[in-house]
């Protein structure tokens, strides 16, 4: 059965523990902008690293790129963004579908019947000016997607890497959209981050690669702990299909407000390379060595949101358990994603214990993000770590001074084992990479 957690619980945990804060809070906040706190930044970084590892590091048909946010304004004419977003727009307040108001026959959303926003000429791109004197400066845009930076570098990558089709280019970076309606915490904001792949293939093989990437991307979320039943793929109807797309699927997650898009997979055909060749006057062909023909590759685009992934991983990991009189709140985060991998907890603040604990702390920090906590009872400290998803706590007690052993306590099962200090790093390395713990899987995703 799919499971949902209430958004208030996630927002409250994120605030309380320093995952995510409202932007510019001391000035009253800035609508739909968010700041990632000390734990949030780690979680977000781990998600991006996990993605990069899966789509670049572990593959020989992918390379990375990091292009600038400000680009030549003609790019947005070629891509269709200047024209495509300048319609009189209304947006449905409930399902967020956008409609041209001059196309509509009634005052309600044609898809779900929901209430519509006021109509206005609206371009989603943020405009700014480049150059010291505003009147003379040229208008540039904050990119609304990272994809275009990849398309316009297609030849550069081809020439410098000698990649042959099929191959892909991956990029992670900020994107900006002046969304008509925002909300649902970090789900829809005006400044966000994307993780995008543009995978170039021979025309005719595009369907096969589309199916491949859809499966691959769904599996990535499951491998990192998202429950299968909270994910689904949904094909776009003809009406929803973007102007550049031949086919498109959304990977939806069951967010607290219901099923919504986490990632989009689109078959963009040759639209982008044809457009940029036309507007730039540069050839963006590819020489097929088998047939000796110049072709324009088709592009399969898996485009994911970093912030929506953060929200999905948090929602999916959130759990509450009755523990005696209290509720134990815990995040079953996959160890790869957990912001803090190990907490070092001396049983007391006695000097001798502290000395051992600090040495262990310094040693483990060479490998992972580690927290040291000696405040309040050991039970309280375990709770604090459970709530932020720390997979392991290492406790140093008086016995440790004699037998040179410490206790490892596991988050999900609360099982404990005693291990020699000199083997601690090796054992934690094995456990963080998935070794069994007392015959229990190291981390458990609750189904
Ligand atoms: P939506 O229909 O929800 O507005 P979209 O179809 O416009 O999304 P895409 O253009 O396909 O989104 O962008 C790819 C991904 O970027 C989305 O799947 C989402 O994860 C992320 N994304 C897009 N817009 C936003 C936003 N305003 N805030 C946060 N993430 C976003």
Task: Please name the defining characteristics of this protein.
single chain; 447 residues; alpha+beta; seven-stranded mixed β-sheet; 13 helices; disordered C terminus; binds adenosine-5'-triphosphate
Characterization of this structure:
The protein is an alpha+beta fold. The chain contains 13 helices and 23 strands. It has helices at 7-17, 38-57, 74-79, 81-84, 147-151, 154-161, 206-223, 271-280, 306-317, 351-364, 378-387, 398-403, 424-432; strands at residues 20-22, 34-36, 62-65, 88-91, 98-100, 120-121, 126-130, 138-142, 167-176, 191-201, 231-235, 247-255, 258-269, 286-288, 293-295, 298-305, 318-323, 326-331, 342-346, 370-372, 392-396, 405-410, 416-420. Strands 3-9-10-16-13-12-11 form a seven-stranded mixed β-sheet. Helix 2 (38-57) crosses helix 9 (306-317). It is globular. The model is unreliable at 441-447 (pLDDT under 50). Residues 145, 177, 179, 188-189, 192, 194, 261-264, 303-305, 307-308 line the site of adenosine-5'-triphosphate.
What's this entry about, in short?
Helix content is 30%, strand content 28%. With 447 residues, it is an alpha+beta fold. The radius of gyration is 25 Å and the shape is globular.
